[in-house]
Design goal:
By secondary structure, the chain is an all-alpha fold. It is built from 7 helices and no strands.
Length: about 220
């Protein structure tokens, strides 16, 4: 039987994780809105919610280690805490990808190239899938003890992830055709594909977080 403070400490970790994920989601949504409207200033502002994410995930990790040391959790609880440690790593990667994507889009949109801007707007279908996946991941963290709901949300994240692969394939084909017919802006097109691939990693990490939650609830492979 766990000591009285254990559940409180565990829920504090989960609450801190949820808050960090909300701020990543906010930055991701604000970036999408700014790119849609072509507002470079708003795009820069979108990075503000995630400035201190790394420091906060370090605190979450430290709190988890303290729980290990103080309460020596049993198998099921141990699974959840190990999952939490893995999730903070994914959170930091999402933060880095959002930050880099915003900086790269600021640079590309500042060039004011109509054709490049049109391709960027076309790529935003990926961002919209990521916004949806964030919503589902946040809901997973909030209904953590409902296995059926967690599984349903995991399936919905997988659907959004699958969509992004299809969108990227179509976009890559279109951009490669443009690269083949132009020798002057090949590097810019190549960079755009690179930045979009980095953006794809956001939803890839969200699917990873989804897998950690599933492991915490139901076991299996991590």
């Amino acid at each position: 039987m766990m000591l009285p403070g254990y559940n409180e400490a565990r829920h504090e970790v989960r609450g801190a994780m949820l808050e960090v994920m909300r701020e990543l989601s906010e930055a991701n949504s604000r970036a999408l809105e700014a790119i849609e409207s072509g507002d470079l200033e708003a795009l820069g502002e979108a990075r503000k919610p995630i400035i201190d994410i790394v420091e906060r995930t370090e605190k979450i990790d430290n709190d988890i280690v303290l729980i290990f040391a103080k309460y020596t959790p049993e198998a099921k609880d141990l699974r959840e805490l190990v999952s939490d440690l893995k999730m903070t790593s994914s959170i930091n990667r999402i933060r880095a990808n959002i930050n880099n994507y915003i900086k790269n889009m600021q640079s590309m949109l500042a060039e004011n190239d109509a054709e490049m801007s049109a391709l960027i707007k076309e790529s935003l279908s990926i961002n919209r899938c990521t916004v949806n996946a964030f919503d589902f991941a946040l809901e997973m963290l909030q209904c953590f003890d409902d296995n059926e709901k967690v599984q349903e949300l995991a399936t919905r994240i997988e659907v959004e992830y699958s969509k992004t692969d299809d969108i990227y394939s179509i976009l890559e084909k279109s951009i490669m055709q443009k690269m083949g017919s132009s020798h002057t802006v090949t590097e810019e097109y190549f960079n755009l594909l690179k930045y979009i691939r980095k953006n794809l990693k956001i939803i890839d990490r969200l699917e990873s977080i989804c897998g950690r939650i599933m492991f915490a609830r139901m076991g299996g492979k991590l």
